[in-house]
Amino acid sequence: MSAAAIVAASIGFIPGTAQAADPVKPARQASGAPSVDPAAGLETFTSAATTGSAQLSLFLSARAWSAHNIELTTSLGRGTPPLDTTIDWGDGTTGTVTASGSSETQTSHTYKELGEYTIKATVVDPVLGTSDTKEVRVRTAGSEFTPYGPTRLLDTRSGTGAVQGKVKGYSSTRLKVAGNGGIPAGVTAVALNVTAANSTSGGHVKVFASGSTRPTASNINFEAGQTVPNLVIAQVGVDGYVELYNGGWEPVDLIADVTGYFGREEASGYAPQAPARVVDTRSGTGTAAGAVAGQGSFTVKVAEPGATAVALNLTATNPQEAGHLTVHPAGQAAPTTSNVNFTA
Question: pTM for the complete prediction?
Fold first, then answer.
């Protein structure tokens, strides 16, 4: 069985029997390259509607059109001749646009870091001695990833994060994410390792933002008696919650372990690379050749120093009995949360 995982940069593998998890200290936030969060919405920002003078006026409209980019529309109310408008982007850089008459000029800017900035534009007519200055506060649309945990936020078997008891068929349970524990209130999306357990018939699970339309695609599919985990990156609703929907006839237990979240503050970016196998115990790639013993583990280097997390596709193959696979930072105690569950 295979599953995706986002874990800290060094990992260890531990097969064994799945158990409920105890909370662990979240990983420290670190700086890194930015990443795009597809869940983040695009916003438009405008300056105050006040006019400058009868001879000269300026109006600003800004639109976040990608993770780090802002498109600024400068509206000039004035006759000829051409005039220069100086733009202070709020990050220590400036630019100039030239326009004449009553006109609109579009220009874009890329911010190195995500966050909020104040754009200030000033136009001056040296002949008439008039000027106008406008400001607009903007916020970049992208989100960056911060590793966290793994920490169990939901376990319907024990009542962690929700009412104790299986989630009924064709119904949802709500899970608080934003502001839960060390997760900040302004998160836009969350990385969860979601597990369906103790099923008595086939079904599926969908994870989505609270208050949004339930998607048609599922995140987990399971059969009767299976315990199936999968990594889910879900948008967080404006109320700070996500919903987990049981799309089967019969009730099922749902478990969710947070492994990180996305926000608009500086954090750890995602750097994609071509898929590369770092471990294969069948051939001895990355570790000794041979099946990993029950309750055994090994350590493997998966990234260079400075990396805070790594995205892995994990596969357990040729198991002789039921168990699970846990991936965690090397040098730390293994959590009781699992990444892959398997049967003989």
Answer: 0.65
